[in-house]
UniProtKB/TrEMBL annotation, chain A:
Recorded superkingdom: Eukaryota
UniProt region (Disordered), positions on chain: 1-33, 83-146
Role, per record: Plays an important role in membrane trafficking through the secretory apparatus.
Gene from which the chain derives: LOC101853902
Upper classification of the organism: Eukaryota, Metazoa, Spiralia, Lophotrochozoa, Mollusca
Composition bias type Polar residues, residue spans: 11-25, 91-109
Name under which the protein is recorded: Vacuolar fusion protein MON1 homolog
Family: Belongs to the MON1/SAND family.
FUZ/MON1/HPS1 first Longin domain sequence ranges: 163-286
UniProtKB/TrEMBL annotation, chain B:
Gene3D superfamilies noted in UniProt: P-loop containing nucleotide triphosphate hydrolases (3.40.50.300)
Protein name: Ras-related protein Rab-20
NCBIfam families in the record: small_GTP
InterPro entries: P-loop_NTPase (IPR027417), Small_GTP-bd (IPR005225), Small_GTPase (IPR001806)
UniProtKB keywords: Nucleotide-binding
Family to which the UniProt record says this protein belongs: Belongs to the small GTPase superfamily. Rab family.
PANTHER family: PTHR47978
Superkingdom of source: Eukaryota
Length: 564, 212
């Protein structure tokens, strides 16, 4: 069916888009636009290119050191306690507004980064009694599968997986595989690492992707690791690259970049599965999340629809009761949706980091049992250090999760008190009930937009890095149909973003539905109509939709950011 | 549950991945056994013991959380060192991995060695003898006056069959925060009513998911 899909028509392109846009866009008020965004508004998708990925230097140097600089600030604050001159202390730190600024001195911080060092010393300890299970260079003879490998790799189930993701270390050691056990896949991983190395060594080139039949292989090398994605689906190379980047971020989130690089600097042959043991579920879950959560593709986050007064009340409760030193971010998440986010002045959260946080909660049933305290590295915030997350659910049913992210590993008990106060207030003001009501109402139905023939849409406001979309309803209520819808969105997204010239509007007639994709400076819109809709009708409908979103924007988006 | 009131005692539990640490704590605190998802980071429980508050820290055995160990070990009054009776490697880990971690705990920290999953143990396949367990528990507690203890700080438990679980915690609490006979009786009754309540409500609304 995919092959039958043909493009019927296409209007507008980069050159005449401005005129087209002003003609077609009937409103000049972009829904969900805000100057006061709480997330970093970047389109990570367009930032993705191989040039930045393959040269092995630290890609995050410019933003690293945030945590150290915060800790440093704390130390300074302590020493300045005597002279009480707080204003002076604050000024020294306000160097940069938008990026997570690095203090000048932060690179030479010594005493306070104990956490990471502990992990690292552990890792070196353990490496001593590690048994070398794999040869450093895989001899060619080993590339021929042995009988035990054949079972796994040749099983129909394994072959028929729609997508495979592998992580391999530079020396060819398996680190992760989405399907099948890494041990059984040693051979196939070796082959792939060999491909990467051969291309690099003999051709002096970088292997990016291979198309073989209906499979596409995409390769990404970063920090001594090779990430490989193989798909039979509709994802483009660029989109696969985005998925691999998420996997990379997940590795960093568990280990930190500094630990990762140190490990491989000391032991090129290190078996990374050891420090990652127990973390496999985060990788699995992240990949599952990518299949159902369009926010990862759009580099944006979905908010739980709430009356803005309720949301304000919630963020004020947090500001009031969690005004604690070293607390960088406080956020509430309910079923993968952002309820509120309060941040330290000067520090922003990147949507990719927020997805890792959502993934952490989503993948960890254990948080439902008790208040927890766990390290998490947010690679876009600071790839080289851990934040400490105080994680707790606020309701009996464990739907509403509060996260308090601090740089102070000792802050647990203080944050636990904050949590109790916040919870008390949210109960008193019925805010928890409002959250639960909203969750029960299931976001909103497409019918509420009252636009005939519009079946589903994704709308992203670029300035705030948030998106909204209605519930998945018939015909997209089965798993297969949802997958097909996602394929359509992937297709539309890819055509609009990466097809040579950047398109602004794409109208596409398929056998079962008509698609309209529209990208402007302010928003990205992907709309799915019934099959018989014409271009004029679609454009008209989309304008109506924009007006509806505009009307609902206070409920659907978080338009102003709250700081401590 | 809140950390508002400062706890009078901090108890931590250490041991390899999947030896049954979380199950042990949940059996004691919630009075039931259910499948536990692997612990992420460290988890905090608060427990009443007579007039006292006891903080209980459950931890994940994974290496990558070793950065946290300093935090939860510091000023711990007691540490449960758990191993799986059916897996000798987990017993060795108690020496190899957790001895050094515990240096951050109180000097007079009581260490209790607990062999778990005794229900799975077939006596003829036993690899760690009771005497080995007891010996380890004595060796770990060289610094405290062992005569003050009713017996060696060694237990074999089953969270599944509810065997010896209560005993572990009461042994610890009674040593660190002694209660009078009267207080203790009241505590037992309280504990019992909680468990009864739970069991009744469990029958009442099975559908409702209850977290520990
Ligand atoms: N048969 C039996 N299984 C147990 C017992 N305690 C724990 N388990 C099982 O052992 C596994 C790991 O338990 P868990 O409490 O998560 O271990 P932790 O990683 O040390 O916290 C789970 O599958 C439990 O159901 C026990 O007393 N008897
Ligand atoms: Mg556990």
């Amino acid at each position: 069916m995919a092959a039958e899909v043909r493009e019927a028509e296409q209007i507008g392109n980069t050159s005449d888009s401005d005129s087209v846009q002003t003609e077609l866009l009937e409103t000049n008020e972009i829904p969900g636009k805000s100057e006061n965004a709480l997330l970093v508004a970047t389109d990570s998708f367009e930032d993705l290119n191989y040039a930045g990925l393959t040269n092995g230097t630290l890609p995050t140097v410019s933003t690293s050191g945030t945590i150290h600089s915060l800790v440093k600030k704390k130390a300074r604050r302590a020493s300045a306690l005597l002279d009480e001159n707080e204003a002076a202390g604050d000024n020294t730190a306000s160097s940069d507004e938008t990026t997570n600024a690095v203090d000048q001195e932060s690179s030479e911080v010594s005493g306070e980064d104990s956490q990471e060092d502990h992990l690292e010393s552990r890792l070196t300890d353990l490496s001593l009694n590690e048994t070398e299970s794999l040869p450093e260079e895989i001899p060619m003879t080993q590339l021929i599968p042995t009988s035990s490998d054949i079972e796994d790799v040749n099983s129909l189930e394994w072959k028929q997986q729609r997508r495979h993701i592998f992580i391999i270390s530079e020396s060819g050691k398996p680190v992760y595989s989405r399907h099948g056990s890494e041990d059984k896949l040693v051979t196939i991983m070796g082959v792939m690492q060999a491909l990467v190395i051969c291309t690099h060594d003999f051709q002096k080139d970088t292997l990016r992707s291979i198309v073989a039949g209906d499979h596409k292989f995409v390769f990404m090398c970063r920090d001594h690791l090779t990430f490989i994605g193989i798909t039979r689906g509709r994802e483009s190379t660029q989109q696969m690259l985005l998925q691999l980047t998420y996997m990379y971020n997940q590795v960093i989130s568990v280990l930190t970049l500094s630990t990762l690089t140190r490990i491989f600097k000391q032991h090129r042959n290190y078996d990374l599965r050891r420090p990652l043991s127990g973390a496999e579920k985060f990788f699995d879950n992240l990949l599952n999340l990518m299949d159902v959560e369009p926010g990862l593709l759009l580099s944006s986050v979905r908010c739980l629809p709430l009356d803005s007064s309720v949301r304000e009340n919630i963020s004020h409760s947090i500001v009031q009761h969690a005004k604690v030193k070293d607390l960088v971010f406080a956020l509430i998440i309910a079923q993968n949706q952002l309820v509120t986010l309060v941040r330290m002045k000067k520090y922003y959260i990147h949507p990719m980091d927020l997805h890792l946080i959502i993934n952490l909660i989503n993948a960890s049933e254990s948080f439902k049992a008790a208040e927890s305290w766990t390290p998490i590295c947010l690679p876009k915030f600071d790839a080289c250090g851990f934040l400490q997350a105080h994680v707790s659910y606020l309701d009996e049913e464990c739907h509403t999760c509060l996260l308090l992210l601090s740089v102070d590993i000792e802050a647990f008990y203080i944050l636990s008190e904050c949590k109790a106060k916040i919870k008390e207030r949210l109960v008193r003001y019925n805010a928890l009930k409002a959250i639960n009501d909203s969750l029960r109402r299931n976001s909103y139905s497409i019918q509420q937009c009252s636009i005939s023939d519009l079946r589903h849409f994704l709308y992203k406001s670029r300035s705030i890095a948030q998106y909204t979309s209605p519930e998945l309803e018939a015909p997209y209520h089965t798993k297969e149909e949802q997958q097909r819808l996602f394929d359509l969105y992937h297709y539309l997204h890819d055509r609009i973003h990466t097809s040579g010239r950047q398109l602004k509007i794409l109208f596409h007639v398929g056998p079962y539905e008509t698609l309209l994709g529209w990208v402007t400076q302010g928003f990205e819109l992907y709309a799915v109509f019934g099959p018989l809709v014409t271009k004029t009708i679609a454009i008209h409908a989309v304008n109506k939709l924009l007006r509806w979103i505009k009307k609902e924007e206070d409920r659907l988006f978080i338009l102003s950011s709250v700081t401590f | 549950m809140s950390g508002k009131k400062k706890a009078d005692l901090k108890v931590i539990i250490l041991g390899d991945y999947a030896v049954g640490k979380t199950s042990l704590i949940c059996r004691y605190i919630d009075g039931k056994f259910q499948t536990q998802e692997p612990t992420v980071g460290a988890a905090f429980f608060l427990k009443q013991w007579g007039p006292y508050n006891v903080a209980v820290w459950d931890t994940a055995g994974d290496e990558r959380y070793s950065g946290l160990s300093h935090f939860y070990c510091r000023s711990a009054g007691a540490a449960i060192l758990a191993f799986d009776l059916n897996n000798p490697k987990t017993f060795e880990s108690l020496w190899a991995r957790f001895g050094s971690i515990l240096e951050a705990a109180n000097e007079d920290c009581l260490k209790i060695v607990v062999g778990t999953k005794v229900d799975l143990l077939e006596p003829e396949h036993r690899e760690i003898t009771i005497e080995e367990g007891r010996k380890l528990s004595r060796d770990l507690n060289e610094h405290i006056d062992i005569r003050k203890l009713p017996h060696d700080p060694y237990f074999e438990t089953s969270s599944l069959a509810n065997e010896n679980v209560q005993e572990v915690f009461e042994y610890i609490f009674q040593y660190c925060l002694p209660l009078s006979a009267d207080q203790k009786k009241r505590h037992r009754n309280q504990q019992k009513s909680v468990v009864d309540l739970l069991e009744n409500s469990e029958e009442g609304d099975k559908g409702k998911k209850k977290c520990c």
